[in-house]
Design a protein that fits this description.
It is flat and about 65 Å long. It has about 130 residues and is α+β, with helices and mostly antiparallel strands. A hairpin with a 5-residue loop joins strand 2 and strand 3. The chain has three helices and three strands, in the order E-H-H-H-E-E. It has a single domain, classed as Ribosomal Protein L22, Chain A (Alpha-Beta Complex). A three-stranded antiparallel sheet has the order 1-3-2, covered by helices on one side.
């Protein structure tokens, strides 16, 4: 009797990983996500390893998680994986106040964001 399992949202040759609540603005995170979109996984990992952006370390962790999901959960070949999607979403925004001159205050916004990475196995063209 129990609840039916929800059907898989991704195709059989895809796997994904999500990193939530990264302490960076979505605009800055999207720059790093654009760096790896559509590339082979090995190239994307190398690009993230040598990127000078601080958040590249967290994006690399998420990409490695997607690769591990593909290998262990879905039996995909790691050498044939590409980064099919890397999309960024807005998270919460912490609001803080900073004192300014003449007794005023100004608002400082500290945004969070999420990143979803989908890797897909493609056959090598001979």
């Amino acid at each position: 009797m129990g609840k039916q399992a929800t059907p898989r949202a991704l195709a059989d040759n895809e796997a994904k990983a999500v990193a939530r609540n990264l302490r960076v603005s979505p605009q800055k995170l999207n720059l790093v996500a654009g760096l790896i979109r559509g590339k082979k996984v090995s190239t994307a990992l190398a690009d993230l390893e040598f990127s000078r952006k601080r958040i590249a370390r967290d994006v690399k962790k998420c990409l490695e998680s997607a690769i591990a999901n593909a290998e262990n959960n879905h039996d995909l070949d790691v050498d044939d994986l590409i980064v099919a999607e890397a999309h960024v979403g807005k998270g919460l925004v912490m609001k803080r106040f900073s004192p300014r001159a003449r007794g005023r205050a100004s608002r400082i916004e500290k945004p969070f964001s999420h990143i979803t990475i989908v890797v897909r196995e493609v056959e090598e063209r001979a």
